[in-house]
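Lab notebook: predicted structure, single chain.

Context: the supervisor wants predicted structures on file for every construct in the current expression panel, including those that have not yet been purified. This is the next one on the list. No modifications to the sequence; it matches the entry in the shared construct table.
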Amino acid sequence: MKPVFFILLGLLSCSRAAFALEALSRAEADALCARIETALRPPQTAGYRLIRHSDLLEHELESSGTLEIPEAGVIRLHQQAPEPRETVLDAASSRFPVPERLLDPRLFRIECFDEGGNYLLVLVPLRRDLSRIVGSVELRTDACGEKLKKIRLNAPDGGFTLLEIQ
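Prediction complete. Output recorded below exactly as produced.
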């Protein structure tokens, strides 16, 4: 039994090492956050695909359309499929704590990693009101760190919403 345990332990450590992410230095992380915030300045428009997963749902829900950031703290989703509709998230009038500035170190602990061709930023809420709604936020960028490709909102209950930006 002991040899099997050590073999499994060795395989686990090898697989974890293969998927290890390289954490960015504080200076690199600050520069990456500055590039992303510059890229997110309004006005912005892009196509999107949204996937919602919950253990309560039999199937994942998918939608697609156009994402618009007309001004700071405002996001509009113009859904075209599966049915046309519009959703507006506005930090000023939301009953949920929508941050006006996503990469705010007063709201989130921000960890930055090099994924070998892309960057991953993991935001963990520091405020209780945010942590009730979002367990963490994962931002994936292009190789230059100047364009967001994916945003994954992880819910405290294990569900998630994935926004792929085209």
